[in-house]
Specification:
The structure holds 2 protein chains of 2 kinds. By secondary structure, chain A is an alpha+beta fold. Chain A is built from 10 helices and 12 strands. Chain A has a 7-stranded mixed β-sheet with strand order 7-10-6-11-8-12-9, sandwiched between helices. In chain A, strands 1-2-5-3-4 form a 5-stranded mixed β-sheet. In chain A, strand 1 and strand 2 form a beta hairpin. In chain A, 50% of the residues are buried. Chain B is an alpha/beta fold. Chain B is rod-shaped, with a radius of gyration of 26 Å. The N and C termini of chain B lie far apart (53 Å). Classes of the chains: A alpha+beta, B alpha/beta. Chains A and B meet through helix 3, helix 4, helix 7 and helix 8 of A and helix 2 of B.
């Protein structure tokens, strides 16, 4: 076993031979948007993301469904599953089965299995002093999803955030493999600072995030300013606030965005500084258009994230 | 007018929405909101602050009491992103894009189809302000040339402010680039962007 419960990561990894390891992950959640097909796409992209974050290639998947058939009927479920299959096709991953149960609350997700070369396995530990951090998708989906629930988001915003959440981390993962990556994770429920805290916790390093360089959905700032911050952002903050030092000029809105739980967020990639600009250029050239260098790793302090 | 709202036991964004409804509909000048968690306290305070209320919070056992007073009794409006039609609200204007890929309406009799498209173009103005883009592709571009039976109507729509987009590749294909008399020559990226921005796309 290469990665297991001892050091929780994006997925579990089990070595099969000298040059082959198996990656397994499972993820499911309740609907976050109204359109069933889009919900299927987003949930599948989210489940596949853990494999990509570890540098692996997804191969097979199984559906996990809890569904109120009497209440919602067959068509909604069909649309959700079709949305999931669209993303599996894009990921060149085969659906080989699944399991469904009757439940009052709808939940859908997938268990995904992939392969990785043990020497090219990226975990959330491994950042070293002098590394740069690159983020591949803008933040703010949790805040915008809260505004959608409140009926405040425009149809354009809903469309933009839907496509962002449904976007696979496939290209980003493929591009990073040709660089000397030191660590990688995908940004999901803990928010960028929660995931970064996992990368830094138990190490001798600290990280400085330049808030001005972090890609953020502009609507997220607007909605956070009028109080549409999900409870998850507050939970993430109270869990990790000892590790995070905010410069005095960082607004509460920026703080909430940095703790905002993401659905199917981007990859957070660490690599030595001299490769960072090149990696960012390659990502953008291949269509990962929001990729940005957002911070740097130092060894001045231990287990601290500085936001400036 | 004053009101006390009990938002205990409710998850975000419900406490903010309750507050929003109360200050909008009842035009409150003072409001008191009771919540039972930190997230709701911050969100409701921030919302009231953004609506020009001065806010103070009192902690009472496990609850928070947020007291707010409208500054100078000014009438605040709820800030919404500009130019954002809300599909749920029927009083809001939606953006309709009509994509026409033919110079005759429907399949069957071509003569009938040509008459129907004339009637279609002449009647489309009944959509009113909601008609936002008229996009012409393939045989549809023939409606924009010299001897089009609806050229006058299209010109009138354009002068009334409607944006008419005409596919450049299609005009080139038919050798009609110079014959086009109305609308902006466009490309596929603009057409796709228009589709993405529209609230409704109607294909003909």
């Amino acid at each position: 076993m290469l990665v297991g419960l001892g050091a929780p990561d994006d997925a579990g990894v089990y070595q099969l031979s000298e040059d082959l390891a198996l990656i397994q992950t499972v993820d499911f959640f309740t609907p976050i948007i109204d359109d069933p097909y889009d919900f299927g796409r987003i949930s599948a992209a989210n489940a596949l993301s853990d494999i990509y974050a570890m540098g692996g290639v997804p191969k097979t998947a199984m559906n996990i469904v809890a569904y109120p058939m009497q209440k919602l009927g067959k068509d909604v479920l069909r649309a959700v599953l079709a949305g999931g299959i669209e993303k599996l096709k894009e990921a060149e991953t085969v659906l080989i089965g699944g399991h469904s149960i009757e439940d009052d609350e709808f939940k859908y997700g997938l268990s995904v299995t992939g392969f990785v070369h043990p020497q090219h396995l990226y975990t959330n530990k491994g950042l070293g002093s002098g590394d740069c951090l690159i983020l591949t998708k803008p933040l703010g989906t949790g805040i915008i999803n809260t505004a959608i629930k409140g009926g405040l988001a425009s149809s354009e915003t809903i469309l933009r955030v839907t496509e962002l959440m449904a976007e696979l981390n496939k290209t980003a993962s493929e591009v990073m493999k040709s660089f000397p990556i030191t660590a990688c994770t995908d940004i999901t429920g803990f928010g960028i600072l929660g995931h970064l805290a996992e990368m830094v916790f138990g190490t001798d390093i600290c990280v400085t995030i330049e808030s001005r360089t972090v890609p953020i959905l502009p609507e997220a700032l607007e909605f956070a300013a009028i109080g549409f911050v999900p409870a998850g952002s507050h939970r993430n903050r109270s869990f990790r606030q000892e590790m995070v030092k905010l410069a005095p000029d960082i607004s509460l809105i920026m703080r909430d965005v940095l703790f905002d739980p993401q659905t199917s967020g981007g990859l957070l990639i660490g690599c030595p500084e001299k490769y960072a600009v090149e990696l960012k250029k390659h990502l953008i050239a291949k269509g990962v258009k929001h990729a940005a260098i957002i911070g740097k790793v130092f060894d001045k302090e231990k287990e601290i994230i500085n936001i400036v | 007018m004053h009101k006390t709202l009990d938002a205990r036991g409710l998850a975000c964004p419900t406490p903010v929405l309750m507050t929003k409804d109360a200050i909008e509909e009842d035009k409150l000048n003072t409001v008191e909101v009771i919540v039972d968690n930190e997230a709701a306290k911050e969100n409701v305070s921030r919302f009231l602050g953004s609506q020009q209320f001065s806010v103070s919070t009192v902690e009472e056992e496990n609850d928070y009491k947020i007291c707010a007073q409208r500054q100078g009794y000014m009438v605040g409006t709820i800030s919404k992103p500009e130019d954002c039609p809300q599909p749920a609200a029927s009083d809001q204007k939606q953006k309709i894009m009509v994509l026409i890929a033919t110079d005759r309406l429907g399949n069957g009799d071509d003569e009938l189809g040509k008459k129907l498209i004339i009637s279609f173009i002449k009647t489309i103005k009944e959509m009113g302000d909601e008609l936002w883009r008229l996009v012409l592709v393939n045989n549809g571009v023939k409606l924009t040339i010299n001897d089009s039976p609806v050229l006058e109507d299209l010109v009138a729509y354009k002068n009334d402010g409607l944006t008419i987009l005409v596919c450049g590749t299609c005009l080139t294909h038919f050798g009609l680039l110079k014959a086009k008399k109305v609308g902006e020559t466009t490309n596929m990226l603009d057409i796709i962007t228009a589709m993405q921005l529209a609230d409704k796309v109607i294909n003909i």
